[in-house]
């Protein structure tokens, strides 16, 4: 069959649906029966990821054979009045690049995890969440509208929080997962507000209709959502804590894909940012502040995964600045190269200490190069601030987390009082008295009719 005649609709839809179907099937088996064996679980998930990669390659080849972008409409999901939720997929240079990157890295991490998590009690749960994340991330990068991106965005956030708390027998992973989930929920308010505002302005959220919508407020809402997902300043505190999860999930989420969902959203919303100079200036400022903060803190970390986490923040902050300056092609190349590099570094993080020891043993008679030369130039107070991570987590806890919690408690109390007022003003139903039972004397002398 010639390439242009391939059913591109089904090929594009099969990219996120393959891991999603594996997730629901395996989830139903684990819920109704018991956890499958490691071999059976790995075969199902890796088979779905292989199918997703094959469909992604076929979809990209079909797109390359077309003169322009490919817009796939799978019909309405639901409708209410004049509004309807259309399931659309959009294939262009940005989505094709991210789709291939997501499919390839997810498959590689899955294959690596078969050996890394062998005999781990949560082996089946990890692969179930891996299929969940893959479907959400592919829907995020392939969605043809902000509605579809929002669905994938929330799906990825849920999988991220669950994998951070993978080792639930310890308190630290659970606390880190809840912190990341709370940060996601707080910043996702911006994405939800932007979604509603875009529906109000244009009546649709498809990417092809964004160029004629000037809105600084909408752009700032999307910037807020991207800051939370990519752990930009001042929401950077949750990313180093997220390394409590398994090493494969840390490499996939916070080195390769999930942490880059923010720059992807900004690249996708580039037509909006072109008409919002204030939002672009905010992007440059936030990106440079994050890069500066993460660079100083990275130099004083004592463990490999924390150092890599702050290295990720530095590069993602530079991507934010590149998008704010209009360097979209450079930002996309930077994203792909950085995702591949950090994924490899995080996968090799458990072996880094052994490599250093072997190198020092081989160079026993050679003086090791000093890595603290830059630190000697820094003032003592600045070095101390870097050790304390500039108290960013304390300030975030005091000025952001606690006020939001207090607001939530007050709203809950106000709602309870309002419900009490409504209950007090509502007429109470008259209780129905149960029919009296016949007395003992009456029952002992029944009437003829009763008999």
UniProtKB/TrEMBL annotation:
The chain crosses the membrane at residues 12-32, 44-63, 94-114, 126-144, 150-168, 180-198, 249-266, 278-298, 310-336. One of its GO terms (cellular component) is membrane. Residues 77-127 form the NADH-Ubiquinone oxidoreductase (complex I) chain 5 N-terminal domain. GO terms for molecular function: NADH dehydrogenase (ubiquinone) activity; NADH dehydrogenase activity. GO terms for biological process: ATP synthesis coupled electron transport; electron transport coupled proton transport. Residues 436-451 have a biased composition (Polar residues). The keyword tRNA processing does not apply. Keywords: Membrane, Transmembrane, Transmembrane helix. Residues 426-451 are annotated as: Disordered. This is Proton-conducting membrane transporter. It comes from Myxococcus llanfairpwllgwyngyllgogerychwyrndrobwllllantysiliogogogochensis.
